[in-house]
Every structure is written in structure tokens, then in C-alpha cells.
Amino acid sequence: MNWLLLAGALSALSAIPAAAQKAAVPPPYAGVYQPQGVDEIGWWRQDDEDERTLAASPLVIRDEKLTGYIRNVLCATVGTGRCASARVYVIREPVFNASMSPNGTLRVFSGLLLRMRNEAELGAVLGHEFGHFERRHSLNLFRTQRSGTDLLAWSGLLASMAPSYNVIRVYRDLQWSVYGHLFRYGRDQEREADALGVGYLNQSSLPPQAAAAMWQNLMAELEASAKARGLRKPNFKTVAFTASHPPEGERAATLAGLALPDGSGRDNRAAQYRAALAPWLPLLLEDQIKLNDFGGSDYLIQNLAADGWTADLWFARAELYRTRGNQRDFANAIQFYGNAISLSGALPAAYRGLGLALTKTGRLIEGQAALQKYLQLSPDASDAKMISMMVPGAMRNE
């Protein structure tokens, strides 16, 4: 009898709704959703408390101009009516990520901003997150997870009442089915958000092809990272049983197919994006280099330089090579520092790095001259006393 009940519970799993990929057409905007019922009201209250904590976090980049710019990109993507419900926070974390809570809190991580090449790519990610928000995916996933765990709890109770090999086997099958459904449900939500994100772009003034291009760039970065570490090339066609997102290759291909062909000629506003990010680019590159991901960082820097090398990009690449520390890296770093200095002579840190790299290769006189230049340009630097110890006469000249 209990075995039959467990079998019935297994078949009941199919009653849990699964998200399906929708056509890339945003639904009519129905205004800001208000929480209904105990679950939703409690969730919103928790999100409000989390947002208060986030607003006071030292990780938040407090730049009204940058935050306002990102908000404008969101509005250009999803529409001015929809974006009114979002509150943007830029978080200094060198990871490729963004998220939007049910209460309208939009978190954009600095690592994401570093990897975007234009407003269209940023809009693709923001539209994806807004799709989660508009479809209330977080809340739906919570309800699905609760239904699944409730099913397992009752099934476990029934199994304990009549322990036998067949009952235990059916219960274990049920466990795998529930867990598999929950992970698949999350992946289906990601697919729906992808379709909505490119749907917003289709109806905007930005080229929707940027969504697929962004994933192609990310896969290339992951390949470069794996190659530099001596690892196998990543498989972008399949994912693990427990994966929360679809494979990157699938996402790139799907987004390319959903993009309106007529939209490819639209302005992706790359120049405007570079200008908005320029004040923060050195800091974002510095954070990226500290991740100790040589291959991924080198690919990222070169990808950013596709529209032209700047002093900041040459300096970042020089720092990347110097900090890895192979003798051949020092030779490359010397060249890259020189390129940065030729584009911007008022870059004290470039002279510092150049001096250290020259010293490491045995070119002491040239290295000391570069370090002396660094001290002249930045006499109040935090490491001025330490660097002056490497330059004969520098301490006496203070």
C-alpha cells in the first residue's frame, strides 16, 4: 500500500509547473507588481531589509553619474515605464554577474561592466535580469522548491512506515526526480529570461545581436583562462545535472536566433559606453588582475582594446605580465609600460612598474631612472619611502 502511495507521489511531481521558453516578445506592461499573500509580503519585507543593508555597504560604488547612466541603459532597453520600478546599485566585485530582486533592487557587479563592450551588450544583461523580475521568477522558484521538498518530506514519512527494498528504491527515484525537476525548472527560467531580454532589445533602438555576441566573448574568455592554466577546453554544449543555467553555447545560439535580423544595423553606442566607464576603468582592471587569472585577464584586456589601445589598457596588460613574474613576462611588461607612457606621460604608476620590471631583468640603471621619475611624479605615494630605498641618493634628496 505504501509502495503504491510513493508511486503516486512520483507521478504527482509532474503537477509542479515548469517554466517554458516564451517567444521573444515582452508582455504588455501591467505596472509595478504589488505583493499578495503572506509569502509574497514576507519576501518583499526581507528584500527591503536586504536593500537597506546593501545601501550602506562599502562595496557599493557611489557614483551618481555612473549609476544614472546604467539606469538610462536599462530604460532604453525595457522602456521608461518598466524601468521606473528599478533601483540600481553598482557593486565593486570583479565577477560577471547581475541580479534583480522581486522588490526592484537591481545589483550590477563591476566585473560585468568591465566585460561589456557597448550599451547593447549591457542592455542584454539588464533586460535578462528585468525579465526575471517581471516574471517573478524568484518567487515562483521558491514555491516550486517548497512543493518539491514538501513532497519529499511526506514521501519520506511514508517510506519509513513500511521499510523495504522496493519502497526505498522508489523513494530514491523520487528524490532524483524532484531534484532534477527543480534544477531543470531553474534552467527553464533562465531560458525565459534570455528570450525576454532579447525581446526587449528587439523593440528598443539597440541591436539585439549584442546578446549573442556577449556570450561568445564570455566563452572565449573562459577558453583563454583554461588554456593558460593548462586545463581542457570547456564544454559549452552540456551542463551538469545540478546546473542552474543552460550551457553557454546553447544560450548564444538561441539568442542569435531570436534577434531580429533588421536590428543588426542599429547603433550599439560603444563610444558612449567607453566614455561612461572611462573614469572607473583603471580600478576595474586592477581588480581583475588581482584575480590571478592570467589567460582570462589577458583576453579581456585585448578584447577591450579592439577599438584601440589606451594608456590604461597598456598599463593593465603590463601589470598583468609583471605580476605573473616569469623572466619573459618582464620583457613584455617593459614594452607594454613603454607603450602606456608614450600615450600618457603623466602616469606615475607606469614608471613604477617599468622601474621594477627593468630591475628584475638586470637593467638597474634604467630601472632606477624610471623609479626616480615615479617619485618625482608622485612624491606622496604610500610606497614612496620603500621605492626611494631602491634609488641611490633619493633619500638624501628628500
UniProtKB/TrEMBL annotation:
Binds 1 zinc ion per subunit. InterPro entries: Mito/Outer_Membr_Metalloprot, Peptidase_M48, TPR-like_helical_dom_sf. GO terms for biological process: proteolysis involved in protein catabolic process. Residues 87-257 form the Peptidase M48 domain. Residues 1-20 form the signal peptide. Belongs to the peptidase M48 family. PANTHER family: METALLOENDOPEPTIDASE OMA1, METALLOENDOPEPTIDASE OMA1, MITOCHONDRIAL. This is Peptidase M48. It comes from Sphingomonas gei.
